[in-house]
Structure formats: C-alpha cells, structure tokens
C-alpha cells in the first residue's frame, strides 16, 4: 500500500448536496458492489464492506479506510434549476383534477377549487411538494482524492465508474477520465470524517458533527460524533 492521488475529470455539472460529502471509499465500495453483482453475488453490498484489497485502514474499534473526501475544483458558480419527478405530467394533473372535482364548487367553477390555468405547486408544503423541487448544481473541472492503497488494483477497479455524485441517471457528474498516481502527501487522506480521538494532521482543522466513519454515509442509524474537515 502506498500514498496515491486520484483525479476525476468531469464533463457534466455536479449535483450539489452539501449534507453528504462524497468520500472516496464510498465510490470504491460502490465499484466493488457492482463487480460483485456482475459475478452473481446475492449479497453484493455485504461484499463491499471489505475493501482491504484496495485500501489500507487505521487500527482500533473506530477505524476508517485511508481515503479522503473528494475535493472539487469549480468551473462555475452554483446554479439552480427546477426538477420534476419522473412521471406523466398530464396524468398527474388529470388525477389531481379528479381528486378535487366537486370540492367547493361554484356556478363559475363547477369542478371545484383547482384552476388549471393558475395552479402552482408549493415545493415547501402540501401533497404536491415532492413532485417538483429546486436543485443546485455546479460545473466542476476536476475532483481530487487522496488514498493509501494498491495502485494497480484501484486503476482496474475504477474503470467501471462512469459518474460521481447524485442524480447520475440525469447524467450529472459524468466522468471523462480517472488517473491514479503516486503522491508525496502521505497524510492528505485524512481530509475525511475521522474518529474524535484520532490525532489531527498539521494544516487541517476539524469540526465536531454527527456523521458516519464508513459507507454508507447516508445511513442515519450509523451516525456517531465524528470530526469533519473544515474545507
């Protein structure tokens, strides 16, 4: 195992979700899961718990894989757009009209209180709030991560990764290339969630937060008090 730097070059914008920073070991776990599924595993996510063929790890009960978060180089400011769920809008409004038919009817508006020409979806509350949402995205020229791992094994594994981040089905975070190279920054993998009791490297400040030490980072039940790098 050796200190390595992984660089992702992107050709589509990145979906912004600041609550869950992207950790490199989560990307590697995803690739291991996909590989296990392709080989017929019936429990591919459990197979992805073991990344020892690719990454080194710390010792102790509260251990972490030696893999940093992804650090992005923006190519634009943060931009916004409206997004709707995958469904048929005509069917949605037809069902909505049927639901409201006869509610508070008047002679001028016999179908009820919904007027199709003025109807708006409240994205903050109400039954339709999940139908439409405001999303943030940003053009990113590259993303970098630092790991302690096996260079050849990582190069082979990462060829299966085509996107990073969320909303990849909508082609956010599309990758054009991934490079794995030796690095002389041996401690930079510590740009990640760490156990509270672990010593901090020089030059990196941390804040105490509730978070996970290993993937899946979104799983609230696994959250404990950790220290997160201030970036």
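^ structure tokens above, recovered residues below v
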């Amino acid at each position: 195992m050796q200190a390595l730097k992984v660089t992702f070059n992107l050709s589509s914008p990145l979906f912004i979700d600041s609550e869950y920073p992207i950790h490199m070991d989560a990307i590697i776990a995803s690739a291991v899961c996909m590989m296990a599924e392709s080989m017929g595993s019936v429990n591919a996510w459990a197979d992805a718990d073991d990344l020892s063929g690719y990454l080194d790890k710390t010792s102790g009960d509260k251990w972490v894989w030696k893999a940093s978060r992804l650090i992005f180089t923006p190519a634009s400011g943060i931009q916004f757009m409206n997004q709707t769920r995958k469904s048929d809008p005509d069917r949605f409004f037809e069902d909505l009209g049927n639901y409201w038919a006869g509610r508070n009817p008047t002679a001028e508006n016999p179908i009820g209180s919904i007027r199709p020409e003025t109807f708006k979806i409240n994205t903050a509350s109400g039954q339709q709030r999940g139908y439409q949402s405001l999303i943030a995205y940003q053009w990113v020229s590259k993303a970098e991560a630092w790991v302690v791992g096996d260079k050849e094994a990582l190069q082979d594994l990462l060829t299966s990764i085509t996107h990073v981040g969320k909303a990849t089905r909508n082609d956010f975070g599309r990758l054009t290339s991934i490079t794995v190279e030796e690095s002389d920054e041996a401690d930079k993998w510590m740009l990640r969630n760490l156990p509270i009791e672990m010593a901090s490297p020089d030059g990196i400040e941390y804040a105490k937060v509730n978070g996970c030490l290993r993937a899946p980072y979104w799983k609230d039940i696994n959250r404990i008090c950790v220290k997160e790098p201030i970036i």
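The chain has a mean pLDDT of 84.
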